[in-house]
Each structure stands twice: as structure tokens, then as C-alpha cells.
Amino acid sequence: MKLSRLGEFGLIDRIGRKVTVGHGVRLGIGDDAAWVDHPRGSSLITADLLIEGIHFDLKWTTLVDLGYKSLAVNLSDIAAMGGVPAYVMLSLGIPANFDSENIDQLYRGIGSLAKQHGVTIIGGDTNIAESLLISVCVIGHPPAHPIRRAGARVGDDLYVTGTLGDSALGLALLRDHQQAPTRAVKQLIARHHRPTPRLAAGALLAKHKLASAMIDISDGLIQDLGHICEMSGSGATIEQDKLPLSPAYRLLAGKNGMNYALSGGEDYELLFAAAPRLRKKIEALSKHARVAISRIGSCTPARNGIQLVDSAGGKIAIRAQGHDHFKKN
Ligand code: ADP
Ligand code: MG
To answer: In the prediction, which pLDDT does 328 show?
Structure first.
């Protein structure tokens, strides 16, 4: 079957069905990170591949920012399990026209984020390539109960950390060279280049067993909510007016309105479900983790699918699902 029909997630499903699950795999293909046993404990492991021309464009991304982001997106997957990142394996495919200065810049970006979170680069692989290719694998320590994509129950509240859509709008601004570099423009672009992995919030949610399911939003809210719903066997209703938007987003989203926030991608915020009785605790956690946490909707029976509603409960059509590398949206 053509990959454009199967789609990225159909392809991953297919791979998952063909792979034999060996001993010690607590959680294999299908979540934000794998969870595996070893003789003296267990680890979380996650990997991401960033390819020039697909995930980034060196016309408007510095190598320092790119290094930062390539680690940030992996740390975000560890955050989505409630884990603590520890080790990084970093592999590079490097175009022939690069020099050592370029690679220093990349590692400067990686190093600054690694230092913030106490993670160490322990190895990787280096080769020549047609375009720049960065493959990052992060190994982390799991909490006692890692938070999976499965586990949301009907009636649970749905929450997101931070604000949505800034990164996708930032990218749109980068592509549209007409924009004057105002403060708001710079803020959105910075969110695109340097996403913040929500490690403190993720770890606290796991430690206090507050979230029934969690994912990081890499491919857009609606798409990633779809993964939680599918794995949990639930549906969801999202109240559009409750989606957290930054002042810069409100100022500059223009006619695209809510689209970036709903399906823009690369937010790297956490989306999680939690029982309604935990609302006060989640408010307190938000202060502790120093990140805004907004209640945006709730889980419903699976037959309702994913619905977007206005404040009066009226249905709003969902235009774009989100990002899939193979399907043409
Ligand atoms: P995320 O957006 O959190 O990085 P992905 O959608 O990339 O998650 O991946 C979903 C799941 O599929 C993960 O468990 C990942 O490890 C697994 N996966 C992705 N690509 C492959 C592959 N080529 N072979 C095996 N597993 C894969
Ligand atoms: Mg993820």
C-alpha cells in the first residue's frame, strides 16, 4: 500500500503488529516512550529524527537553535510519561559543506538544554549525508507509574500546559518574510525554535498520580488528543473558548483564528486527562511546576468521537486534523 494512503500512524501500527515483543518490554511501540526492564530496574527510551527540508530549514533556523530543539522534542516525550531524562545518544548525518564550527554550534544548543536538565550525551554515530539529519535517542528514569496514552476515563477533565499554536504561527511568520520583527513576532518565533519540555509538570503529575492519560502535543492538539482517545477507548469534547492562547498569538493569528492552536503542531505542551475531583490539586501543581495548566474539555464515550464546541455548547466543525508526515492533509 502507498504510504500516502496508509499515513504515518497507519504505518507505525503496521510495524507494531509485525514486531515481536520480547521479554522485559513493559511498553513498546505506541506511546511517547518505551518502558523496558533491565536487571536492576527499568528505563524510558524515546527517539526522534529531524531531517533538513522536512523538519527544519537552515534558511531561518540557526544551528544553535536546532541543537536545542532536537533535544527538547525528545525530552518532551520523557515528560509525557512523567519521567526524568538522563542520557542522550545523538547521531548525525552531515552534509559535505559543513565545517567543525557548524557542529560546535549545534552542540552548543544541545548542551545548553542538556545542562538545564542534567542530562549527559553518552554517544551516537556520525556520517556524511545529502542533507543535515539529526537522530536523538533519550534514555530516562521512569516514575513508579509512568503515564500512558491509554487510561483516560469517561468524565475525566482534559488539560493542557502552557499555550497552544504559538510554534505553528511562529513558523508561518518565518515563512512570510513581510513581517516586521515586533516583540510579538519574536516571541512566537522563539516558541518555534525553542520549545519548552514540560518536565516538572510531567514528573509531578506522575508522582502524585494525578493524570489518567498523557501525551505531548507534537502534531497538533486534535491529532494528539485522537491518540489518547484511541488508546483509552474514549471520545472527547473540547471547548474552543477555553484553549489557552498567548497574547502574541491573539494579536497575530489573524484570519487563521484557532487553526494553529487546534492543529498546528510542535507545541510540545502536555495534554492530559484527570478525574474532576483532582481539580484543586492540579491548580496547586500548576504553581509548583511554574506553568499554566488550562482545563479545556472532558472525556466522553467513544461513540461521540472528538467534538469541538463553543461556549454555548454549539458544535464547531474541525477543519484540519493535524500533522502526518505521509498523508497530504
Ligand atoms: P511521538 O510523536 O511521541 O514522537 P510517534 O508518533 O513518532 O510519537 O511514534 C509513536 C510510537 O511509534 C512510538 O512508540 C514510537 O517509538 C513508535 N515508532 C515510530 N516509528 C517507528 C518505527 N520506524 N519502528 C518502530 N516503532 C516506531
Ligand atoms: Mg510524544
So the answer is: 58
pLDDT recorded at residue 136: 98
3-state helix, strand, coil in the chain (%, to 5): 40, 25, 35
Residues 215, 221: Cα–Cα separation, whole Å: 10
User: What pLDDT, on the 0 to 100 scale, is given for residue 20?
Assistant: 83
pLDDT tens profile 278-302? 999 999 999 999 999 999 999 999 9
Closest of 87, 8, 6 to residue 265, by C-alpha? 8
E strands within 144-199?
Answer: 157-161
Nearest CA to ligand 1 atom 24: 15
CA gap 174, 193 in Å, rounded: 11
According to CATH, the superfamily of the domain at 31-141 is PurM-like, N-terminal domain (3.30.1330.10)
Per-domain boundaries in the chain: 31-141, 157-316
Burial class (CB in 10 A: 0-12, 13-18, 19+), 89: middle
At the second CATH level, the architecture of 157-316 is Alpha-Beta Complex (3.90)
Q: Quick one: 271 exposed, middle or buried, by C-beta within 10 A (0-12, 13-18, 19+)?
A: buried
**Binding pocket residue ranges, ligand 1, CB within 6 Å:** 12, 15, 29-32, 48, 77, 218
Atom 6 in ligand 1: residue holding the nearest Cα: 9
Which pLDDT value is given to residue 180?
84
β-pair type (84-94, 120-128): parallel
- Using the mean position of ligand 2's atoms as its centre, give its distance from the Cα of residue 314 in Å: 31
The list of the chain residues with pLDDT below 50 reads 329
Q: Whose CA is nearest to atom 19 of ligand 1?
A: 12
